[in-house]
């Protein structure tokens, strides 16, 4: 996780456009100023950042399904549940499945597991729209390369 | 079997917590019922699932923005019902 850049996904482990599924990996940093406040003497990964981790995983899936022609933006979070504490240094396995592709939006079911055990999950709605500008699309391609976005998903449709 | 309008009205009532009896075929989803674009995504999701269609929200929005259509044509519920019936019929054709 690059918390200071709000880039929470380390690596795309597996992605299937045909099955509409993705699995990513994200390791919580061992140290970060966030843990100084959340909480002093008892560092925990904030739940909102776990939601963001699921949202970014869902976003990569939606971007892949749209062949990098369109971008996904988090619009709604439903039924978010946090079942266990997440602490510094833990390696998270994040999955998302596309439940529905609407016109201009997508709905995913996402979850995070730790050691094979589900620790949180939510249903996410993402707005799907054209990239707002060319620069953003280029930057997203750079990030995509860093996290292992598959080369076989065309960059230009 | 309930009508298309009844299904939509029930979805709106449940999704947006609007009293069912205040929702009529003449209701405008935005102007009368106060449904915003985010809530309408939830409604669209439920309609898509209920009818097995994909409401062309982006196309409708573009037509309204371009002045080629009015919001009444798509968001007055009796008109929305007709659009859904057309999409369902086109799917089965």
Pick out its properties.
heterodimer, A: 157 residues, alpha+beta, 24% helix, globular, B: 93 residues, mainly alpha
Task: Give a verbal description of the structure.
The complex is a heterodimer of chains A (157) and B (93). By secondary structure, chain A is an alpha+beta fold. Chain A has helices at residues 34-37, 47-65, 134-147; strands at 11-16, 21-27, 70-82, 91-101, 105-114, 117-130. Chain A has a six-stranded antiparallel beta sheet, with helices on one face. In chain A, strand 4 (91-101) and strand 5 form a beta hairpin. Chain A is globular and about 45 Å long. The model of chain A has no long low-confidence stretch (mean pLDDT 94). Chain B has five helices and no strands. In chain B, helix 1 crosses helix 2 (37-51) and helix 1 crosses helix 5. The mean pLDDT of chain B is 93. The interface between A and B is medium-sized, with 11 and 14 residues.
Summed up:
The complex is a heterodimer of chains A (157) and B (93). Chain A has helices at residues 34-37, 47-65, 134-147, and strands spanning 11-16, 21-27, 70-82, 91-101, 105-114, 117-130. Chain A has 157 residues and is α+β, with helices and mostly antiparallel strands.
